[in-house]
Each structure stands twice: as structure tokens, then as C-alpha cells.
Amino acid sequence: MTSPVIASIKVGLAILAALYISLMSLYAGWIRRKVRAKVHGRVGPPWWQEYADLAKLLFKEDLMPPTANYGLFTVTPALCLAAALTLSVAVFPIFYSLSDLILVAYLLMTVSVCLVLAGYASNNPYSIVGSRRALLGLLLYELPFVIVLITIFMLTGTTNIFEIISWQIKHGPLIMYLPLSAAAFILCTPIKAILNPFSIVTAETELMEGVLLEYSGRRLAVLELAHKMEFYILAVLFSIVFTSWWVYEYNLALWCLWVIFVSLLFILVASFVDALTARLQPYKASKFYWIITTALSVINLVAVIVPKILGVLP
Amino acid sequence: MGVKERAFRRSLWIYHFNASSCNACEIEILAAISPRYDPERLGVKLVGSPRHADILLVAGPCNRVVAPMLKKVYEQMPEPKIVVAVGTCALGRGVWYDSYAIVGVDEVIPVDVYVPGCPPRPYMIVAALAEAAKLLEERAARFEKR
Questions:
Q1: I need a labelling partner for B95 at 20 to 30 A (CA). Which of A48, A145, B69, B139 fits?
Q2: Can you give the pLDDT at residue A303?
Q3: What is the mean pLDDT of chain A?
Q4: How far is CA A67 from CA A58, A63, A71, A216, B70, in A?
């Protein structure tokens, strides 16, 4: 059905999307560090700092502790990066069957599970505690996150990102219909991206980077890149799923600019919260997620389901 | 200057090791990474694991109990790496120059940059880090990954 020209354009777009996400995620990491420096009253690193860090890690020696599990220690970074790259193609509406919220949710989870496995594979007491905390984090944010996705499905009747965008073009941005779900999505970001009020996974003062403790050189570079990509992908996902609107109808370039703008705004806000808050204890984080975030998402789910049952909404 | 050297010069990840120091040098190291001097401009970042580090900051005279740990931490760091010895104790054992319990940092691991002073001033530590960056760049140019 599809001609080879369109197929090759799509493959080119996919490569462009993966490149864009991997480069911008490092830029987002720099924004995070710069915002923190500004809050401290410092100058902060130059804009290419994160790229220099990554290049340096790629050129460094690659060590493996003798107690580590060789297979897992080697495979998890590669798997993590593969999931993040697939994810960066999947969040953009390029391939119809790939851009699906269920797939996106699974791939986001794959990145987190790879981090957990990386911690267990290095077989260090601190990394194992970090892995346990990462598993706790999975328990905490997956429930509200999936409820948010279910709410979107209930309202728009689809999980495909193409369809969600066309629904938004017709009816306006989803954030107007699902403000509490959007809030729950935003609240899920810090623990997924390991930002400060909920940075219990790689608590650098107690766990010394936690799951990443035993990694060095290339493997560390790959894990860090995948983890930063996850953060930026969450921002892009938010801007596509919740805030795309009529601009897409008139101009694709305008829509791209809008997505970039909203995702950078998202990252700026997350970085400010990261710089201004201290780390919560794990049990306080669980309380917060199980009560506040889940409540927000459930309220909005009920607010969508009840009119559906009563027949007010189509 | 290639990408490799430039990257090593502008990205210094530091692991700080206390080799039986009296904590005066630690306080000055913390002052050196404070907003007033802001070494993050040079790409400095404190890391919690020696596996991530490029530079090992050692303070203290290093007694016999700590010496094997210091050696172990040094061996855990990936190549290329630089050791910066902070303070008079790490430089020449200081007031413990003839103590039976003290080994001396430079007899356990090879030290590249010494910072004199008891304790050294923060700007001297920042200057030592800049010096270490230069050395790291040279070492990176010679370093070939296996």
C-alpha cells in the first residue's frame, strides 16, 4: 500500500526523531544543572557540558567488578538504550502502528526495569538497595500513570497517538478536559526521571548513585543517556498527548515548534522543583503517590466514566 | 586537540577520599566547591562512586588502617585518572612525619598534583583542579582503550 518513497521518508523521520531526542535530552540535562546553579547563585556549566561528559565517559576505561553478573551487567545498558531509542520514535506520530500509548507505557517501564536489573547485576549492597527503591518507585507511579492512560482512552476512545492528536484538533487540547489527569502525569515525572523531591532511587548522598554505582565508562554513558532520554520523552509525551491543538491542522512545522516549546517549559518547571526541594524519605514518597497522585487520577477517571454511563458524553 | 582530549579537559568528575584527615582539608574542599568559586564552570562534579571518577582528591596523612582502602579505591577508578593530594599531611605527612602509624599518601598511590597548606585555601584547590585537568588531557591523549 505505502510506496517506497513514503516508507523511506518515514524511516528518515524516525532516525531524525531518535537523534533529536538523544541530543535534546542531554540539553535538558544541562537545563537542569543550569537552573540548579542559578538557584544557588552560581554561574553554572557551559551549554555543552553534558555532551562533554558523555564523550568523556565513552572514551574512559570500561571496568566490571568481579562479583557482578557478567551477562546482565553487559546486556542491561544496551537493552535500556534500545528501549529509549524505540520510545523516542514511538512518541512522535511517524509510524501508525508504533505510536500507541500502551506500547509507550511498556517501553517506559522497560527503561526503569533495566535500571533495576542493572543495580541487581552489579551486586553491590548500595546498588541493591537502589534497585529495591527503584522497584518501590515502579509500584508507586505505575498505578496513577496507567489510570491516566485509561482515562485518556475512555475519553477519546483510542490509545493511538495519531487518533489522540486528531481528537484534540477536533475538540481542543486534552489538558482542558483532563486537568487532574495532567496533574497526575506531571507528578509522576519526578520519580520516573529520578528528580529531587522523589530522587530516592539514586540518592547521591546516601546510596552514592544507587543503581549506577558500579558502572563506568561506556556502560555508564549508555545508562545515563537512556535515563536522560526517558525524562525528555516524558516531556514530549506530555506535550503531544495533553497540549496539541489546532495548530497541527494548519502547519506541521508550527506543531513541531509547539511541542518543543511545551516540552522545554515542562523541563524548566521540573528542574525548578528539583532545585528547590529536598529529598523525601521513601515512605513519605509512597504516601504521597498512593494518596494524592492516585486520588487525582481516579477522580478524573470517575469524572469521565460517570457521564459516559449516563449517556451525556458520546 | 581532538574531541577526546577536549572532553577530558572539560569534564572532571571528582571522588573525594578522606585518608585519616583531621577534616580541616575537607572543610576547605567543600568551600572550594561552594557557589563562591563555582568549579562547575570548569565541568567539575562531585560523584559518589570511584567508578565514575576521573580525579581522586585525597586529604590526610594516610595511616596504616586506611592505606589498603586508599589503594583499593584507586584501583577501582577507570583509566585515565589523576590523583590530587590536598594539604600538608598528604604532601609530606605534615606533623606526623616520623609517626609509626603513618604511611603517607604518595607511598600508597602515585600522586600527580600536590596542594600545600594546612589547610590549603579553596582557590588553591581550584587551581590544582585546573592543573589536574591539563594533566588529564595529556594522559587521555596517550591513553588507548583496550
A1: B69
A2: 84
A3: 84
A4: 23, 12, 12, 15, 20
What is the number of residues in chain B?
Answer: 146
- CA dist A225 and A25 (Å) reads 8
pLDDT in tens, A224-240: 898 889 889 999 988 88
A62 touches chain B (CB under 8 A): yes
Taking only the tens place, the pLDDT of each residue in B22-79 is 888 899 988 988 888 888 888 888 888 888 888 999 998 888 999 999 999 998 888 8
Q: For residue B10, what is the nearest residue in chain A, using CA coordinates?
A: A52
Give the model's pLDDT for residue A2: 65
Looking at residue A215, what is its pLDDT? 86
Show Cβ contacts of residue A291 under 8 Å, excluding neighbours closer than 6 positions: none
Q: Give the three-class secondary structure for B15.
A: strand
Whether chain B has a CB inside 8 Å of the CB on A47: the answer is no
Element (H, E) at B130: helix B122-142
Query: How many Å lie between the alpha carbon of A217 and the closest alpha carbon of chain B?
Result: 7
Closest C-alpha among A58, A210, A200 to residue A137:
A200
Average pLDDT over residues A60-67: 84
Measured between CB atoms, does B31 come within 8 Å of chain A?
A: no
- The domain tally of chain A equals 1
Is B72 in the A-facing interface, judged by CB distances under 8 Å? no
Is the bond preceding B119 in cis, omega lying within 30 degrees of 0? yes
Predicted confidence at residue A247, as pLDDT, reads: 62
- Written as one string, the DSSP assignment of A7-27 is HHHHHHHHHHHHHHHHHHHHH
User: How many interchain CB pairs under 8 A, A with B?
Assistant: 89
Residue B7 near chain A (CB below 8 Å): yes
What DSSP string runs through A157-216? S--BHHHHHHHHHHH--HHHH-HHHHHHHHHHHHHHTT-GGG--TT-TTTTTTGGGTT--
Whether residue B144 is predicted with pLDDT greater than 60 in this model: the reply is: yes
Burial (CB count within 10 angstroms: exposed 0-12, middle 13-18, buried 19+), residue A189 = buried
* B3-142: CATH architecture: 3-Layer(aba) Sandwich (3.40)
Q: Which of residues 106-135 of B touch A (CB under 8 A)?
A: none
| Per-residue confidence (pLDDT) for residue A313, from 0 to 100 | 63
User: In chain B, which residue's Cα lies nearest the Cα of A47?
Assistant: B41
Integer Cα distance of A121 and A131 in angstroms = 10
Q: Above pLDDT 90, what percent of chain B? A: 22
What is the domain range of residue A64? Answer: 4-310
User: Best of A47, A59, A209 to disrupt the B interface by mutation (most B CBs within 10 Å)?
Assistant: A59
- Read off the C-alpha cell for A73: 551487567
